[in-house]
């Protein structure tokens, strides 16, 4: 993969694809600017080398030109962080001159998600060089992440470079034991990752609602727990080949409803009574997982251990997060909700690498080629 070392940017206009897909509240205020901050090293480096920047980014999933998906709040926040004026271009036909210009949401253009070569040409016409730093969008072949990379001298930015080398490093040459902690809502979201880790990891620790298709496949009662039907077949396969590597929870915390003020009940075991839902791993499970994490050489964590957004069901995720933060291992965390959990506990600076890409990090771990990365190779 080409990097900034391979590009001459002095005095040039550089089109930089960034991942500024940040969460906004109802008043369109940014609630978490981590993704904007993550792009700063690349943007600063390019500016220091005398480049003028044209930034391209998407926000949400607009259907055509929808004002509520405008990048204006992002441009304003970036200007504060960068300490420079950031001008938002109203359209591709009206891109003002300036040291730092930001294009409007690339998904306002119908050709963007179709990887339209004509749209890519219009992007390319705005710059001399192309840099992709949008790791979170690198698993999509879109006009601003893929097609345009073939039309200009192109390379990866520092964030994309670090994400790819860290995540590939986990698979290629991990410090052992390699421990994968996989949780979250659905097995089907993570099955590719589980299969990859069945090959490479020394231990796989399962948590979150994802454990219920496993338990159901084992013939246990899951009560009213979130239990994905389509997850049962993949779960069966993983159970069949997991052997000693695979660990499932041994106790749970249940609740009557998915709510913070619901009645709760610890379960010593993993059979969930009728009318109850398993909403967190129990303390014995969490302590056991923490011990494995403590002795790890490398930890990859994706997916919360429970409904951590609800205080009564956050303890399992917190215990695991603290173990990851305190571990001497190389620790890599991927996934939007896992990152949010770390931030909620104030531990987001205590891991080796917090990936900015959810889907992209999973696909890399699965061993898939990312179109946005391939285009720079
Ligand atoms: P990530 O974004 O880190 O990849 P996921 O999106 O896969 O994680 O899963 C996170 C979601 O899973 C959270 O919203 C959390 O509330 C939910 N979740 C985890 N465990 C449970 C559970 N036992 N019951 C219901 N929801 C759960
Ligand atoms: Mg998620």
Write the layout of secondary structure elements.
Elements: E1 13-17, H1 34-48, E2 52-56, H2 72-82, E3 87-89, E4 100-103, H3 117-124, E5 129-132, E6 154-156, H4 158-172, E7 178-182, H5 187-200, E8 203-206, H6 211-217, H7 232-242, E9 246-247, E10 252-255, E11 264-267, E12 277-281, H8 283-294, E13 298-302, H9 315-326, E14 330-334, H10 336-344, E15 353-354, H11 359-365, H12 371-374
Parallel strand pairs: 1-2, 1-5, 2-4, 3-4, 5-6, 7-8, 7-13, 8-9, 13-14, 14-15
Antiparallel strand pairs: 10-11, 10-12
Helix pairs in contact: 1-2, 5-7, 6-7, 8-9
Bound molecules: adenosine-5'-diphosphate (ADP) and magnesium ion.
Account of the 3D structure:
There is one protein chain. The protein has helices at residues 34-48, 72-82, 117-124, 158-172, 187-200, 211-217, 232-242, 283-294, 315-326, 336-344, 359-365, 371-374; strands spanning 13-17, 52-56, 87-89, 100-103, 129-132, 154-156, 178-182, 203-206, 246-247, 252-255, 264-267, 277-281, 298-302, 330-334, 353-354. With 377 residues, it is α/β, with parallel strands linked by helices. The chain has a six-stranded parallel sheet with strand order 3-4-2-1-5-6. Strands 9-8-7-13-14-15 form a six-stranded parallel sheet, sandwiched between helices. The chain has a three-stranded antiparallel sheet with strand order 11-10-12. The longest helix is centred in the N-terminal third of the chain and has 15 residues, at 34-48. Magnesium ion binds next to helix 10. Magnesium ion (MG) binds at residues 335-337.
């Amino acid at each position: 993969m080409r990097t900034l070392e391979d590009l001459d940017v002095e005095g040039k206009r550089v089109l930089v694809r960034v991942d500024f897909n940040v969460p906004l509240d109802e008043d369109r205020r940014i609630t978490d600017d981590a993704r904007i901050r993550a792009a700063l090293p690349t943007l600063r480096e390019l500016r220091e080398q005398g480049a003028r920047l044209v930034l391209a980014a998407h926000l949400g999933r607009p259907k055509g030109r929808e004002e509520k998906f405008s990048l204006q709040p992002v441009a304003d926040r970036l200007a504060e962080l960068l300490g420079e004026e950031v001008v938002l271009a109203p359209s591709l036909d009206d891109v003002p001159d300036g040291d730092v210009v930001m294009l409007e949401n690339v998904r306002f253009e119908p050709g963007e998600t179709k990887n339209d070569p004509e749209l890519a040409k219009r992007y390319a016409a705005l710059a001399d060089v192309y840099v992709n730093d949008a790791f979170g969008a690198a698993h999509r072949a879109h006009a601003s992440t893929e097609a345009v990379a073939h039309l200009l001298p192109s390379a990866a930015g520092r964030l994309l470079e670090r994400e790819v080398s860290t995540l590939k490093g986990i698979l290629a040459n991990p410090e052992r034991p390699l421990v994968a902690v996989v949780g979250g809502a659905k097995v089907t979201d993570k099955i590719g990752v589980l299969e990859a880790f069945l090959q490479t990891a020394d231990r796989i620790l399962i948590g979150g609602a994802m454990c219920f298709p496993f338990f159901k496949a084992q013939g246990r009662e899951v009560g009213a727990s979130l239990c994905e039907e389509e997850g049962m077949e993949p779960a069966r396969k993983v159970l069949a080949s997991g052997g000693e590597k695979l660990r499932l929870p041994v106790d749970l915390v249940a609740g009557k409803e998915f709510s913070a003020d619901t009645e709760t009940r610890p379960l010593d075991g993993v059979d969930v009574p009728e009318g109850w839902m398993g909403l967190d791993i129990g303390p014995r499970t969490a302590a056991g997982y923490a011990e494995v994490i403590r002795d790890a050489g490398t930890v990859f964590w994706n997916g919360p251990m429970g409904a951590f957004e609800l205080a009564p069901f956050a303890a399992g995720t917190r215990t695991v997060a603290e173990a990851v933060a305190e571990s001497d291992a190389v620790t890599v965390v991927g996934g939007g909700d896992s990152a949010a959990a770390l931030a909620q506990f104030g531990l987001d600076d205590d891991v080796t690498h917090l990936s900015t890409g959810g889907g992209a990090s999973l696909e890399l771990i699965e061993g898939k080629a990312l179109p946005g990365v391939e285009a720079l190779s």
